[in-house]
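PROTOCOL LOG
Step 1. Enter all chains and additional molecules of the complex.
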Amino acid sequence: MRNGWRRRTASGARAGVGIALLAAVFLGQSASAAVQADAEAAAKRFVVVLDAAHGGSDPGATLGAVGDEAETLEKNVTLSMSQRLRALLVARGFTVIETRESDVALDEDARATVVNQAQAQACIVLHASEAGSGVHLFVSSLPPMQPQAMVPWKTAQALRVESSLKLGNTLNSAFTSTGRDGESIEPIPVTLGRTTLPGIDSMICPAVAVEIAPLRDKEGKVVSEVTDADYQAHVLNALAAALLVWRSEAGEP
Ligand SMILES: [Zn+2]
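Step 2. Run joint prediction.
Step 3. Record the structure below.
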């Protein structure tokens, strides 16, 4: 119940030798300098992985009937949202990696492999649903684990689950914020949950699954479908704003 999180069930001979040796030493030095420069560049980058759930032969859920049939398939909504969020984040100086950039099927291990090779500072898994209202945030239900030599692949997220909860809280604040600098932003209702997440459970990265559901009124009637472009933009802007906060909290520029 802490922070409102609820559990849900559910990567010339002698002279020639001398020159060759010299060249080898020189090349060796420049190679190690390059490795060091790469490491420094990687440390400066703030990497976000976007994981558009489903794809290819796995369409995911069928969503609200706005637009043509293809637009109502979850796999297409998540891919479109991933691509648009990427653009928002790149414009803000993030390094963004998408697990998929087209309509392809990816298994959970392939997704986790991308995330773990990226050494990302945040991973957002995008889902969409016709059930519920607003945005559902899910963090792995694995208990936290201290760093150790051998970490089982299927439960590696246990190393980062506390950071994932913090990331979830940062996202929650952005969705429920009513705006800054006098601008009026309609808050989006958020449901926080913890559950077994096969993809995320293998990810060594602060990771949150973000499931966008329709906006509903008090009677449960749909006010904005998941496929509504303005509603999606509102959700994506809130995600980008939250990741800016997340980056600044990490002490990055
Ligand atoms: Zn889904």
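Step 4. Note key features.
The chain has two domains: 12-44, 45-249.
Residues 12-44 form one domain.
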